[in-house]
């Protein structure tokens, strides 16, 4: 079988979709060693070079000139699938070519509905593209794989379309508990995520600043903020810098750091906080639990799923009041339940079995 993959997320390993694609594809290629994988991209990078070691992989580059990914996916990527006579295409970016051979089957990974739920955090062109074409792509996809049951439920609610199987995000091998810390922080809380409005970080900062005004400084646990990038975050970055300047011992802005360092910070934290307005799954929650760190997050289906129902879940309307006791240094040290996340190989096996079932049903 000739399997095509939208490999553009692999051009830079930075963000949830790129890691999702990298780890699952790496396992899937080994499981399906008799199939040939065509990794469609518009720019060769070192991260893509990782896959050249597999004999059943072909790197298929179709440069975009000046067009964005959305146009590229419906033009040059579509053309590539025709030329390479792809039997099965995996849309890792929540997008599949609408113009394809009738014999080409498609799998669409459904990450989230940010463009509907938090449209202000989506670029204008991406938002228009998904609002115009997402329904059509979902209807044409032979297999839909949401990253969470919560996302699958929203698929049914928004589009009245059923999904086939849930494939939750793979866990990075580096996210393991470290007994000995590699930093000097003691008794702190941690937040992980891109710096953008959807993460609700500004509201969390406001809660912190208010508490620092009402409590002695030593009664408040410091906050370590890990992450960079983001969208429409100029004001947020300014406010973070101001908070850091006013309270240098309570706001620690780490920016983007390697996964091994993230694991170290998570392993030593009292809690991991996540107050995002919306998540398709809530990956930092799962990573925190892998590092034996309890989580405090909003009570949404996607975050409960990522936490395996093991955490402190705050109501969406009153979380600002409910979170305050956990910010105090006097808050109790908690321990998490044993995790039961599937391994990355098991998740790739689920995808492989879905592929097999698709082709078995085609011949019945």
Q: State the helix count.
A: 15
Which segments are poorly predicted (pLDDT under 50) over 5 or more consecutive residues? none
Structural class by SSE content? alpha/beta
Number of strands: 12
The largest pleated sheet is described as:
6 strands, parallel
Share of helix among residues? 25-40%
Which strand order spans the largest sheet, edge to edge or round the barrel? 3-2-1-4-5-6
Report the end-to-end length measured between terminal Cα atoms: 18 Å
Please state roughly what percent of the residues sit in beta strands, choosing from under 5%, 5-15%, 15-25%, 25-35%, 35-45% or over 45%.
5-15%
Would you list the SSEs in sequence order as H and E?
Answer: EHEHEHHEEHHEHEHEHEHEHEHEHHH
Mean pLDDT across residues: 92
């Amino acid at each position: 079988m000739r399997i095509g993959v939208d490999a553009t997320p692999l051009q830079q390993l930075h963000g949830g979709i790129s890691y999702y694609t990298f780890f699952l594809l790496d396992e899937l290629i080994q499981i399906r060693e008799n199939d040939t994988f065509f990794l469609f991209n518009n720019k060769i990078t070192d991260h893509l070079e990782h896959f050249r070691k597999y004999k059943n992989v072909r790197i298929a580059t179709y440069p975009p000139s000046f067009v964005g990914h959305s146009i590229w996916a419906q033009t040059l990527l579509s053309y590539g699938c025709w030329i390479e006579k792809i039997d099965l295409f995996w849309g890792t970016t929540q997008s599949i070519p609408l113009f394809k051979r009738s014999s080409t089957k498609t799998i669409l990974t459904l990450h989230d509905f940010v463009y509907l739920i938090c449209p202000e955090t989506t670029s204008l062109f991406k938002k228009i593209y998904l609002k115009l074409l997402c329904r059509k792509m979902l209807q044409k996809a032979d297999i839909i794989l949401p990253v969470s049951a919560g996302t699958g439920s929203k698929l049914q609610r928004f589009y009245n379309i059923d999904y086939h199987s849930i494939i939750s995000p793979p866990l990075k091998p580096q996210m393991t508990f470290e007994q000995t810390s590699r930093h000097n922080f003691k008794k702190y809380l941690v937040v992980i995520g891109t710096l953008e409005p959807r993460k609700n970080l500004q509201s969390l900062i406001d809660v912190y600043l208010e508490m620092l005004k009402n409590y002695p400084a030593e009664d408040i646990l410091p906050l370590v903020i890990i992450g960079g990038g983001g969208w429409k975050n100029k004001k947020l970055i300014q406010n973070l810098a101001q908070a850091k300047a006013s309270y240098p011992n309570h706001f620690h802005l780490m920016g983007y750091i390697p996964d091994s360092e993230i694991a170290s910070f998570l392993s030593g934290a009292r809690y991991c906080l996540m107050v995002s307005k919306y998540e398709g799954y809530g990956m930092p929650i799962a990573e925190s639990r892998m590092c034996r760190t309890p989580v405090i997050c909003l009570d949404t289906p996607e975050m409960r799923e990522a936490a395996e129902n093991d955490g402190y879940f705050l109501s969406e309307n009153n979380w600002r009041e409910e979170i305050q006791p956990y910010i105090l240094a006097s808050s109790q040290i908690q321990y998490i339940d044993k995790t039961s996340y599937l391994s990355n190989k098991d998740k790739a096996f689920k995808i492989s079995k879905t592929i097999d079932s698709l082709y078995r049903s085609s011949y019945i």
